[in-house]
Amino acid sequence: MDPQEWYASMPKVTKFLFTGALVTTLAGNFGLVSPYALLLNFSAIYNKFEIWRLMTGVLFFGKLGFPFLINLYFLYNYSNNLEKGLFDRRTADYVFMITIEWIILLVVAFFMNMPMVGVPLVISILYVWCNVNPEMIVSFWFGTKFKAIYLPWVLAGFNILLGGSGFAEFVGIFVGHVYYFLKYQYPETSGNDFLQTPGFLRRLFPDEQGGVGSLSGFGEAPASRRAATNTGRTFTGNGQRLGD
What we know:
mainly alpha; about 55% helix; about 5% strand; disordered C terminus
């Protein structure tokens, strides 16, 4: 598949996130805009109405380098799998998931004084995929294999071993867990789904018939994905540090 066909084959939300992260990061590194104008600065947002920072602070991944490529790959891979799997033909539901995680990340960034939350967004998406496919066997560096449910924690631990703090990964795990708990676990015990997709999003992104997720209950991930036992398929998790 040539690059044009590959890019055209991306589902809508994944294409937006991938393109936004790539363009924003390249623009900040090649001097098209000042990198400081892309960072989260809540004082500038409030006092100077620089509201674009609410988006660029999530899509800007910092300086170019191998960690950026790994982050971009993870963003594409796991978002693509979620959008074509659990959220197949349910674009509105996936937009709502990203929006909820986006908002939580901004709240965390406000209290923790984080200028960028791109890596936590990637990890939060990865975390949801791993919890939807907990029994899937994934491959890691040095030929190691383990269940997907452990992958976010392995990545955080590997970052620490490489000299990082693992803080961005732990923030992403927290954000992903908050969404997954409120959307899939809490409704199973309470009967209440607080994260129902708003009607205006469904009007903007109408569901297509035959979506995988439409077979599930009000707040339940499809059983075929929650209890996947196919160990013949591997999903590569790159063992690189996910950012500074």
